[in-house]
Model the fold of this input.
Amino acid sequence: MAFARRFLQHRGITVIQKLDPSLPRLRRGKIGIVLAGGAVSGGAFKAGGLRALNDAFVQRRLSATDPGRPFGLSDFDVFVGLSAGSVLASVLSAGISPDEIYRILRGSSEVYEAFRPWHFMRPNAFEWAHRIGLFLGKEQELFTNYLSGATDGRTGQPFTLGATLGKMAYATARLLPTGLFDPSALETYLARNLARAGLPDDFGECYRRTGKALYLTAADLNRGELVVFGHDEPYATVPISRAIAASCAIPVWYKPMLIDNPRAGEPGEPDRLDLADGGLMRTANVRVAVEKGCELVICYNPFTRIRYDRAGRSLYEHGLPTLLSQAGRTLIGARLDLAKELVYRDDTVQADVVFIEPAQDDYTFFRMNPMNFWHRERALSHGYAAVAGSLDANYDLLAGLFRAHGIDLAARTERATVVPDEQKLTPNLRESRGA
Done:
């Protein structure tokens, strides 16, 4: 029977299989991992899940004659991260194991110093001086235009006093800070600990030393475009720590990350890049990994909506914070579902993709505040248990898929009580955003 591509979903795992596993391969292709955002608790949940995923891998054979060698997440070829996922992707690509990441977040690591609230929540206390300068400069410009009799470009008439005063009042918005916290605190923490661990803070040097390709993404606020940082990307000279801080700069929570443009002077390039959280542009960046030659991609997204179907109950009863949480997770999850459809339908994407997300009834993680630093240990433990359970529930499907790429999985820790039927798992793609 001819191979037909598959789209399967069950218990937090989505598999899109587009490569025929029966076709012989002289040499295995690249393997990539894509880590979406997640803020603090989501990042910790993801770190716990990465440890569970790492524990599931046993070995990999790169060819039919290769007897196999030990294999883990740090042995992947391509690492793509955005927002909190950029932090995890950077340390994985440098060879730091998921077990060590687990210890870093718990504060027991000897490689990285303990991660503290002030490392990502430094108040944006010094922007006010710059903003006052911007405000006064605009006020002077508006009043000078009125006194000089300059012409309003919209009406063709000189500026009136009333219009000038209105514009001057509107310009007071320039006094407002652009975020609660300064992302440069995170940059400082990362740069210091990369040096402490003897790791390069440079994309090119990281690739030359490890052979692993790291790609991080952020949003260019002025152009509304995705910016990709990596050793073979146009902005390769931006330090890794600075690119991570830019990728994590959640609007309102952080002020934009302002970076001197290493390409300044080139046609169409500004002197400075004003960057914000990469999640503004994408929930994840599977296509980046595929374009870099990956034949197997694992995408891990910790935030998706729950299916609240408790009899006679409604999320409305829980109030505004719960509704906002569900709305945000719905937006993130729906965008990723659309990406899944595009991956499935796009014939130019020739790769197998495994998406890992929380199960739709994971109320425990749903109740954790994304920015609550003190939830991280609970999120770590729960992330490990949740992903281990999802891997067990989908063991037969995943074992076959990974085997086609030369990867052996450890025996499942516990037999799933229900083995999903493939026919029942095939979704109606038109409805998969809400499936």
